[in-house]
Amino acid sequence: MKKAYLTAVGSIELRNEPAPVIERDDEVLIRVHSVGVCGSDMHYFRSGRIGRQIVKFPWAVGHECAGVIDQAGPPSGLAAGTRVAVDPLAPCLACDQCAGGREHTCRNQKFLGVPDQMPGAMAEYLVLPGRCCVAIPDSMTFHQAVMTEPFAIALWAVKLAGDVAGKSVGILGSGPVGLCVLEALKLAGAGRVFATDLLDYRVALAAKMGAAWSGKAEDVEESMASRCPLGLDVVFECAGDNDAIDQAARLLAPGGLLVLVGIPEGDRISFDMNYLRRKELRVQNVRRQNGCTRRAVELTASGRANLDPIVTHRYEFDRSQEAFDTVSRYADGVVKAMIDMVG
On the chain, which terminus has fewer CB atoms closer than 10 Å, C or N? Predict the structure, then answer.
């Protein structure tokens, strides 16, 4: 089978190797159809690391994926031929975190494409525990199934924010995750949602997807002063950028909530305590999707959530390097790029 490896910073190489085999009866062999290029993949691609997670080359990246069950052990509850979306987290199910309903902070977790955990999904075949798979209907495309992974993160982030009905909310960073948060906020009944980005075409897409106002990040504070003079109730920081975090603190109303969804590339961020302390702001981190994948599939399959506008580019597997280069450079109006293993 073909499998894509990150062989150095900025370099993707396809190699031929034997397909993986099922080793436990609760596992499934998936014929991967599509993989999404994620912002966290970009960290590995551009710098070879996310914080303390450092790539040892060569390494297979990618975690947003969907495909068809090729083989399945009976305990998996899945049959060959089943079309599936994938939750890329395999928790241990034995630690205190798993027992407490926090599989996303499992102490012994394995996650697709994370160094020293599980090789990534950019391969023609993939073996995973059956519990990582959610069956999808024939009416659902594989691209839609792939998008349920970032959408599940957005659903969890909005759930962590509590009751957002009728509230004024900001989204800083209108990339794939920020736009998924926008869709989740609409479903949760948020009031006015304001979205920003550094790129004009993403600002335009946020408006198309239902933001009450969208604009360039450098213009947002002046614009918010007239539209929401008392400040925002909640801000979702979806860029992983310290300047955006500082801006969020300025935009929030006293007692407001800052939800950190974006993943910084480095180990540390900082806060302007003048705002955090004087406004008594709350800060909530977000770690993956914590069981929201099935809900993401249901909302997408039913048509209540429409993530299709986020997918802007499609590449065949042999063009994986081009896909990563395009996303890395923010070229050609790219928002979400998909790599299709099957033509």
Answer: C
134 has which bridge partners? 85
pTM: 0.97
Rg (the chain; Cα; Å): 20
Opening angle at CA 310, ends 35 and 177, nearest 5: 80
Structure tokens at 241: 């950028």
Angstrom distances, CA of residue 87 to CA of 76, 121, 266, 304: 14, 11, 25, 20
> How many whole angstroms separate alpha carbon 174 and alpha carbon 118?
29
Q: How far apart are CA 41 and CA 50, in angstroms?
A: 9
pLDDT digits (tens, 9 = 90+) for 182-237: 999 999 999 999 999 999 999 999 999 999 999 997 778 888 888 999 999 999 99
Question: Is 325 exposed, middle or buried, given 0-12, 13-18 or 19+ CB atoms closer than 10 A?
Answer: middle
Residues in a beta bridge with 214:
195
- Token pair 């020293």 in the structure block, residue: 116
Domains and CATH numbers, the chain: 2-135+307-340 (3.90.180.10), 152-285 (3.40.50.720)
